[in-house]
Amino acid sequence: MIIKEVIELIEDFAPTKYAEGFDNVGLLVGDASAEVSGALVTLDTLEATVDEAVEKKCNLIISFHPIIFSGLKKLTGRDYVERTVLKAIKNDIAIYAIHTALDNQHKGVNDMICEKIGLKDRQILIPRKDSIKKLTTFVPLKDAEKLREALFSAGAGSIGNYDNCSFNITGKGSFKGNDDSNPVVGEKGKIHYEEETQIGITYPAHLESKILKNLFSAHPYEEVAYEIHSLENENQQLGMGMIGELDNPVDEKKFLEQLKETFKTGCVRHSKLRGKKVKKVAVLGGSGAFAINNAKAAGADVYVTADLKYHDFYKAEEKLVLADIGHYESEQFTKNLLYSFLSKKISSFALILADTNTNPIHYL
């Protein structure tokens, strides 16, 4: 396989279109047409990670966090970012990062945290709004079924747990071709009326090019009439954070102790305990202060996240308990998620889970 083919597998799982605007995802270093000798899956890409890739004969590093986050104006080796990139280039090692594209996936980072905690009935905490589009097109009655099937096969018409969803209206279309036209029905220069089906169908934004390709190839008309609208509907399968429930309510202190043990963190920083049982839990891997109000609004008893500042803890307002388990600790299982997914798809080269511990924080 070449690197581009591996990237296509990853982005089928976590499309980079849904990464946050501030992020830097995708192929950061390397040639997408290079053949893959081996791939190292890691949370972070550091110099030590590149050394491990060299040792294990991997020319591709698949990383959760991007080593290049803001723009690089020089490559002189003056800091750890530049040194890592230089070492990767010198050793012909490509670096790919997925970051918030995986954060936003329903079966991504936060689902993994929920799994480790044991949460059931999981839902997205902050559903995404800018990810659903609607296609409306018009096709002769006899060709409607063929066109619907073509659109469904490209991924259109999926709504939550349902697929093959569309709305169809029968009506009469009219058109008149000019001298350069080549109409499938009717005659050029004469107005023609055709019994048609109006098909309305929604689709995930990242599939648009594939869906339009199928529309044009399956539609019988020389000129295809269609409209595309971006919807404000919230996507319940995509977004930041998750919320779920424990099978049985537990004492707050016991829950925090279990967090510390499960995530192997040096400490759990938390807001004031409320003296109530924990049943509903919200989670968001990495820096999650921005979602405190969302967790409160969702009725969470505890919000598990990382990188909370001093004044963030005041925002609990005794309506829930904020639990900061550490950035690395909250995302440490992400590489296992990527490895598990890719290992089911790839057999043509070695896929290796990195051993290098990239946590920059230590505890006494």
TrEMBL record:
Pfam family, one: DUF34_NIF3
SUPFAM superfamilies from the UniProt entry: NIF3 (NGG1p interacting factor 3)-like
Domain of life: Bacteria
Keywords attached to this entry: Metal-binding
InterPro entries: DUF34/NIF3 (IPR002678), DUF34/NIF3_bac (IPR017221), DUF34/NIF3_sf (IPR036069), N-reg_PII/ATP_PRibTrfase_C (IPR015867)
Recorded GO MF terms: metal ion binding
Keyword Iron: no
Positions in coiled-coil regions: none
Family: Belongs to the GTP cyclohydrolase I type 2/NIF3 family.
Protein's name according to its UniProt entry: GTP cyclohydrolase 1 type 2 homolog
Species, as recorded: Christiangramia aestuarii
